[in-house]
């Protein structure tokens, strides 16, 4: 009888508030592991089960009086828990990782500086609220465990320290701070070549640059993604396709992707410790020349059109200061729509944008001067995309979480736009560039995307280019000089910025040094950051080797030369 009563008491204790706390903490830990290691969601149950087994065996949180008290959870003689701040910072990082997949701290700092007003993606605001509530409950639950179990209380200071030093959020900040005292913070800057057109072709071609939001070439793998990339595969048959375009750090969001491909530099934020760090930026990378500056000097009329607001992340400022004549986003294009209610949370759907692009190209052709037009889509934007209604006739109705539907829709609309312009005779003597602005952020097929090597979309067609494939290790920095040479311009040593033309035999930085090495050098770079922002960044004494450097010269130290000599030529 005693054994039966004891068993019943033990069984009923499994449903006590103590176990509610332990179950919640186990779920929080399991969510952290699956998010960081990109494991599938079904791992939540076994990981939580393992935590609960340990809690049962070690009797975590067990006390003589097993009653739960909210007052005990949040107050005691010692009000402060060392783990509160480290846990809160981990919840911030988890939200970013769960939202974007791979967290680039440069993107966080830049958007704080450039402004995040007029953004879309309202579903992420809901996620932010849920993460905040879960984080607060986690602080309460962990505080209760610490104050009910002396073993956890003794370990808490060590655990708090481990949480701090392991948080990638803080690691990114400390790495940038370390750049100010690094031995060589000018490795990339020595390789910077000021963009310069030496000779223009007899007849200046037009250029149409289509940035397809997040539509990376990784989607071309039919085994993982079916026919989502099929429209672009059809377009590749008559284009010059560049395989192997990788993503360098500080180029993995829209503004950074456009600057990388038009300026040949990664977008390093304006600085971490200068006085105006969190004030709105009045300029975006004012210290470098970009595609618009060069083409503007050659007499081009330049236009930018995008479905989202140009106020977001400094897009309008960048294009205004780098030679573009007309810059239009959601606010400017909305009055031109037949149906002003046909919008998504970011702005225009791709079918509406492309209809307006057709009219823009028609007007540019009528102007007589050579022209350049840049258009940025929204269709494949993470997490689920914003497919246009026009795709329903081809693909059927959209399932709200089917990113592959959105990818195929955006790809088909891009192919359709080019064909419409060709039929209308509006692309004569025009180079068309179709490219992803960056690799996709976290989407429902994230596990499949990150299961192998990833690459950006880049293809060019028209303007006398011979269709084919060029397979080279490159980054989006190399698009800038490649585009200039594809247009027929002669440039300094096939280079512009940090990029190297993929139409030339010259080695790219990633071919010479490897992507991981470049990312490591980027973390310690200060001189290039100063160049980008024209002194907005805190000044730092540079090695004497810099004193005789000409703006358009690649200068290397003896160690650089030894490293480079070991690399094979292409």
The number of helical runs is: 24
Mean pLDDT over all positions: 84
The value of Rg in angstroms is 27 Å
CATH-scheme architecture of the largest domain = 3-Layer(aba) Sandwich
Strand content: 5-15%
Instruction: Report the biggest beta sheet as strand number plus sense, adding barrel if it closes.
Output: 8 strands, mixed
Q: What structural class do you assign from the helix and strand content?
A: alpha/beta
Overall 3D form:
globular
Spatial strand sequence of the major β-sheet: 5-4-6-2-7-8-3-9
At the first level of CATH, what is the class of the largest domain? Alpha Beta
Please report the distance between the alpha carbons of the first and last residues.
Answer: 84 Å
CATH superfamily of the largest domain: Alkaline Phosphatase, subunit A
The total domain count is: 2
User: What is the total tally of β strands?
Assistant: 12
Helix percent reads 40-55%
At the fold tier of CATH, the topology name of the largest domain is: Alkaline Phosphatase, subunit A
Residue windows where pLDDT falls under 50 for at least 5 positions: 1-12, 64-68, 73-78, 273-278, 537-551, 555-559, 565-570
């Amino acid at each position: 009888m005693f054994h039966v009563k004891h068993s019943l008491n033990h069984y009923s204790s499994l449903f006590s508030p103590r176990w509610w706390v332990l179950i919640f903490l186990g779920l929080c830990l399991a969510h952290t592991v699956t998010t960081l290691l990109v494991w599938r969601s079904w791992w939540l149950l076994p990981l939580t089960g393992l935590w609960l087994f340990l809690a049962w065996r070690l009797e975590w949180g067990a006390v003589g009086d097993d009653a739960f008290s909210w007052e005990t959870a949040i107050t005691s003689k010692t009000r402060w828990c060392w783990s509160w701040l480290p846990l809160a910072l981990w919840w911030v990082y988890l939200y970013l990782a769960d939202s974007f997949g791979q967290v680039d701290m440069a993107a966080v700092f830049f958007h704080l500086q450039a402004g995040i007003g007029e953004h879309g993606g309202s579903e992420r605001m809901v996620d932010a609220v849920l993460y905040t509530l879960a984080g607060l409950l986690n602080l309460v639950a962990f505080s209760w465990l610490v104050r009910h179990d002396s073993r956890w209380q003794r370990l808490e200071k060590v655990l708090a320290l481990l949480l701090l030093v392991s948080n990638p959020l803080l690691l990114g900040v400390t790495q940038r701070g370390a750049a100010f005292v690094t031995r060589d913070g000018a490795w990339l800057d020595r390789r910077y070549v000021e963009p310069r057109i030496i000779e223009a072709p007899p007849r200046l071609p037009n250029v149409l640059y289509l940035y397809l939001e997040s539509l990376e070439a990784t989607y071309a793998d039919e085994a993982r993604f079916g026919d989502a990339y099929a429209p672009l595969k059809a377009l590749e048959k008559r284009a010059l396709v560049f395989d192997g375009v990788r993503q360098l750090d500080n180029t993995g969001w829209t503004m950074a992707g456009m600057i990388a491909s038009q300026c040949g530099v990664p977008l390093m934020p304006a600085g971490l410790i200068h006085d105006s760090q969190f004030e709105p930026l009045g300029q975006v990378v004012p210290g470098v020349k970009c595609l618009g500056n060069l083409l503007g000097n050659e007499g081009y009329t330049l236009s930018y059109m995008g479905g989202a607001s140009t106020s977001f992340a400094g897009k309008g400022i960048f294009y205004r200061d780098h030679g573009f004549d007309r810059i239009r986003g959601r606010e400017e294009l909305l009055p031109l729509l037949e149906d002003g209610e046909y919008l998504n949370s970011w702005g225009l759907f791709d079918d509406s944008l492309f209809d307006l692009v057709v009219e823009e190209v028609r007007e540019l052709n009528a102007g007589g001067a050579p022209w350049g037009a840049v258009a940025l889509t929204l269709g494949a934007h993470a997490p689920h995309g914003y497919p246009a209604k026009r795709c329903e006739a081809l693909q059927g109705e959209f399932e709200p979480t089917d990113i592959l539907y959105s990818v195929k829709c955006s790809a088909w609309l891009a192919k359709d736009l080019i064909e419409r312009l060709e039929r209308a005779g509006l692309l004569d003597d025009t180079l068309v560039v179709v490219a992803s602005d960056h690799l996709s952020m976290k989407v429902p097929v994230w596990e499949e995307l990150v299961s192998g090597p990833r690459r950006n979309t880049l293809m060019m067609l028209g303007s006398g280019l011979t269709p084919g494939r060029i397979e080279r290790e490159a980054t989006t920095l190399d698009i800038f000089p490649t585009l200039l040479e594809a247009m027929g311009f002669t440039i300094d040593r096939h280079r512009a910025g940090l990029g190297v033309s993929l139409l030339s035999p010259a080695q790219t930085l990633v071919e010479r040094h490897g992507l991981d090495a470049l990312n490591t050098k980027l973390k310690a770079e200060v001189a290039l950051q100063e160049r980008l922002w024209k002194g907005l960044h805190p000044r730092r004494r540079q090695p004497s080797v810099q004193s005789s450097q000409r703006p358009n010269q690649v200068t290397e130290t003896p160690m650089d030369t030894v490293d480079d000599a070991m690399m094979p030529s292409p």
